[in-house]
Amino acid sequence: MTVSAQHALPADATHPVGVEDTHASTEAAHGEGGGLPQLQTELWFGQIVYLVFLFAILYWLMAKVFVPRLRGVIDQRAATIADAVQTARQVQAEAAGQAESAKAEVEAARASSRSTAAAAKARVTEAASARAAEEEAIVNARIAEAETAIGKTRDAAMTNVGAIASDTAAAIVERLTGTAPTAAEAAAAVKGAA
After folding, report:
1. How many domains, in total, are found in the chain?
2. Whether 169 contacts 189, CB under 8 Å
3. 67-177 and 183-193 helices cross at what angle (nearest 10)?
4. How many CB atoms neighbour CB 97 within 10 A?
5. Which of 193, 135, 144 is nearest to 169 (CA)?
6. Element at 161 (helix H, strand E)
7. Domain, as residue range, for 181
8. Among 5, 44, 11, residue whose Cα is nearest residue 26
9. 56 to 89, 96, 173: CA distances (angstroms)
10. Does residue 130 belong to any structural domain of this protein?
C-alpha cells in the first residue's frame, strides 16, 4: 500500500485480503506502458487488421445488402412518381377535352335558345300585328258605320231644320204682319235665304 493510501484509511481499520494487491497491480500497469492503448505502436498491427476486416465486412454489407435495397426503394419511388405524373397528365388532358366539349355544348344551347327566342318573338309580333290589323279593321268599320249614322242623322236634322225654319219664318211673318204666309211661301223664303 502506498503512503497516501495509508493516510486516507484510519489506523484501526481492517483491510480485506487482496485490496493492497489490486492497487499494486494497477499502479504497475500504469507505470509500465502508460497512456492509451491506441497510441501504443506494438498494438497497431492488430488494430489495422481489425480495421481492414471490419471495413471489408461493412463494405460487403453496404454493396450487397443495403445499397441494393435502397436503390430498389428509390427506383420504386421514382417509378411511382412517374406513373402518378403520367396519370395526372392524362387526367388533365381528359378534363381539358371534357371542358372543351362542355363549352361547345353550352354555346350550342345558347345559340338554340337565341333562335327559339327569336322565333317566339317573331310569332308573337306577327300575332300582335294580325290582332292589331283585325282590331283596326273593326274600328274602321265602326267609324264608317258611325259616320254613316251621323250623316243620316245630319241629313234628317237638316230636313227638320228646313221645316223648323219654315215654321219659324211663318210665325215671325205672322207676328210682324198679322197675316200668315202659306207653307210654300215660307219654304221658298227659307231656301232663298240659305
Report:
1. 1
2. yes
3. 130
4. 10
5. 193
6. helix 67-177
7. 164-193
8. 5
9. 47, 57, 165
10. no
Q: Is residue 177 part of a domain?
A: yes
Is residue 16 in a domain?
A: no
Q: Is the CB of residue 39 less than 8 Å from the CB of residue 60?
A: no
Residue identified by cell 500500500 is 1
49 part of a folded domain? no
Buried b (16+ CB within 10 A) or exposed e, 141-175: eeeeeeeeeeeeeeeeeeeeeeeebbeebbeebee
Tell me the whole-structure pTM to 2 decimals: 0.36
Grid cell digits, residue 140 = 274602321
Contact of 147 with 157, CB cutoff 8 Å? no
pLDDT, tens only, 40-65: 888 889 889 999 999 999 999 999 99
